[in-house]
Amino acid sequence: MSDIYVRYYEPIYHPNNGVLIMLHGWSGDQDSMWIFTQQLPEGFIIMSPRGIFPAMHGFSWVENESQEEQKNFKNYIFSANVLTELLIPIIKKNIQKQKFI
Predict the structure, then answer these.
(1) What is the CATH number of the domain that holds 52?
(2) Which tens digit of pLDDT belongs to each residue from 2-50?
(3) Fewer CB within 10 A of the end CB, N or C, for the chain?
């Protein structure tokens, strides 16, 4: 398992649009999804974590790279738990900043 790395952007202006978490697919990394940020309106906090297991040409969310293992949802539970522990505190902090009318 690799270290957890998250590409993170917090806007200076209009920081109340919400939090966007961008997850890459098999053999991607934290930069794979970043191209899509160009089309977003200003104001989103953006987090793009890198998969926690090394893959052939990048990273993965499952330890075993076989296609059969990638189809089995239970193999993603470990990664989902790691992401939850990492991202929920950041999301909660930013939800508290929101003003609800």
Answers:
(1) 3.40.50.1820
(2) 567 888 888 877 666 778 889 988 889 989 989 888 888 888 888 899 9
(3) C
Domain containing 67 equals 6-97
The phi, psi pair for 9, rounded to 5°, reads -135, 125
Is the distance from CB of 9 to CB of 18 less than 8 angstroms?
no
The pLDDT of residue 63: 83
Would you say residue 79 lies in a domain?
Answer: yes
Which residue, among 16, 27, 10, has the nearest Cα to 67 in the 3D structure? Answer: 27
- Partnered with residue 70 across adjacent β-strands are none
**In angstroms, how far is the first alpha carbon of the chain from the final one?**
43
Contact predicate 4/49, CB 8 Å: yes
The residue behind tokens 């806007």 is 11
Total of domains in the chain: 1
pTM: 0.74
